[in-house]
Write a structure and sequence with these properties.
The protein has about 230 residues and is mainly alpha-helical. The chain has one domain. About 70% of the residues lie in helices and about 0% in strands. It contains ten helices and no strands. Helix 1 packs parallel to helix 8, helix 2 packs across helix 3 and helix 8 crosses helix 10. It is globular and about 70 Å long. The termini are far apart.
């Protein structure tokens, strides 16, 4: 009988995981940006829309792509084959696995796992900001890989595919009289997508830094000696 394979270095495991999830991360992020701009436009000018952008085919397809990306990312972290033990310590791993189960079983009411019952009871399958969970997990992964890897973490750009999808969503949901006045081109929507992308990255970074700052403040407070008032 051959001996079991040696456990690979944590950095090698994390680099593999980063590679496995890279495409799904890109799809989830770009989809979130396109859907975010579509909904932002709708809430700012509802009078020019015939329907909510979330009702049109291109938007629904992006939402389905986000669902599939969440499932694939969570499956990589779940590591059913026990090849990547380093994945078990990554931030938000269990939350993403819960979302994987919720996406994969949309009509299941009674969950076997206690953690999933708590998750469903809090309606987190609908209320969570899933891209934020992915962002926090990925940031933790790159923190573990070191400063150089963290500086080089890839942020997906905005190209023709994103602008074409947003244009399709808007054209499909505008009122006919709006389209007779103005129909957006890919060039028209590109600036808004880039601006939203940059602001969204800043928002996500700020959100994942808040718990760390609160934890550090708590540790600092706990380390300070208490000051007793003078007896009267």
């Amino acid at each position: 009988m051959s001996p079991p394979p040696a456990v690979r270095a944590e950095a090698d495991q994390l680099n593999d995981i980063a590679m496995f999830i890279s495409t799904d991360f890109m799809f989830a992020f770009q989809g979130a940006v396109v859907m975010g701009v579509a909904m932002q436009t709708f809430h700012r000018a509802q009078q020019i829309f015939a329907t909510n952008p979330a009702n049109v085919l291109a938007f629904v397809a992006l939402r389905a792509l986000e669902d599939r990306s969440i499932v694939n990312i969570a499956d990589a972290l779940k590591d059913d084959n026990n090849l990547y033990p380093a994945a078990r310590a990554l931030a938000c791993r269990q939350d993403l696995i819960n979302h994987r189960d919720a996406v994969s079983h949309p009509y299941l009411l009674k969950w076997g796992r206690a953690a999933m019952r708590t998750f469903a009871a809090a309606h987190r399958q609908w209320l969570d900001h899933r891209m934020l969970l992915v962002w926090e997990m990925r940031a933790d992964l790159y923190r573990r890989l070191g400063e150089k890897a963290r500086r080089e973490a890839y942020i997906p750009g905005i190209g023709l595919q994103a602008t074409s999808l947003l244009r399709s969503i808007l054209v499909s949901s505008f009122k006919p009289e709006q389209l007779s006045v103005w129909s957006p081109t890919e060039a028209d929507v590109e600036k808004g997508l880039v601006e939203f992308r940059d602001a969204y990255v800043e928002f996500l970074d700020d959100k994942i830094s808040e718990p760390a700052a609160e934890e550090a403040a708590g540790q600092l407070g706990a380390s300070q000696p208490s000051v007793q008032g003078s007896p009267t």
